[in-house]
Amino acid sequence: MEMQEQIEKYCATKVELMAFREEVAVQFGKVHTAIESTHVEIAKTHTEIARLEGRMSAMETRLIKWFITIIIANATISLAIARYLS
């Protein structure tokens, strides 16, 4: 009889195992949903980063053009002043 009591105390029944299995499945579903929503957020972040990289590249190009224009204008003005003074 003692063996029967030990079995009942420490072993799970089929119903208990099925309930546990169902609970694990529900928890797994919740984790899977959270992972999917995380993937969506990561994709949005990658899209935003790509858009910002494009804008930075355009800004870089505009700055380089502006610097070259300023250098040419300064050189032209310097040469004009040098010719006028000499």
Spell out the blueprint of helices and strands.
Layout: H1 2-10, H2 14-85
Q: Tell me, what's the shape?
A: rod-shaped
Low-confidence stretches: none
Q: What class do helices, strands and sheet pairing give?
A: mainly alpha
Number of helices: 2
Q: H/E element string?
A: HH
- Let me know the average pLDDT: 89
Oligomer: single chain
Mind summarizing the main beta sheet?
A: none
Question: What would you report as the Rg, rounded to the nearest angstrom?
Answer: 36 Å
The level of helicity is over 70%
Percent strand equals under 5%
Describe this structure in words.
By secondary structure, the chain is mainly α. Helices cover 94% and strands 0% of the residues. The chain is built from two helices and no strands. The model has no long low-confidence stretch (mean pLDDT 89).
Which descriptors would you attach to this protein?
single chain; about 90 residues; mainly alpha; rod-shaped
Summarize the entry for a quick read.
The chain crosses the membrane at residues 63-85. This protein is mainly alpha-helical and 86 residues long.
